[in-house]
Amino acid sequence: METPWTAKHPDGAGPDAFVMASRFELKSAWRSPSFLVKSMRILRQTGRSPGLFGVSLRAYPLRGEFWTLSAWTGEEALRAFARTDPHRSIMKQAKPWTKSATFRFWSAPSVELSPRDLWRSAEQRIADGYPAQ
After folding, report:
1. Helices (DSSP H) in 71-130: which residue ranges?
2. What are the Cα distances from residue 10, in Å, to 13, 61, 91?
3. What H or E segment, with its residue span, contains residue 38?
4. pTM (whole model) above 0.90
5. 68-87 pLDDT, tens per residue?
């Protein structure tokens, strides 16, 4: 399952976007339905978050694997979102369910935010073990 890229044009956007990709592996796939519901709540939260260029979620519930991809006006916009509920509370609650969590961050030209290209880059960066910033 993949949610479509939710594109926005945030105020104060500069020439580059701060992109984040994450991959979560659950300890047990039986937690997938709850994790998916919580992920959808967080996805709705992004729609109200200042500084968002776009966001998408990929879920593989039978494998207990979830990916996120988002682009922001800067690192502070992403961090402000992450510190706000429901994201903050949900991540604390779901942490014990998680076997691993991988995060990658990079910059991309804000006028060239192609979801297909961003997903390709995210997959490569996570698979190749690019160092997180």
Report:
1. 75-82, 87-94, 115-127
2. 6, 32, 25
3. helix 32-46
4. yes
5. 999 999 999 999 999 999 99
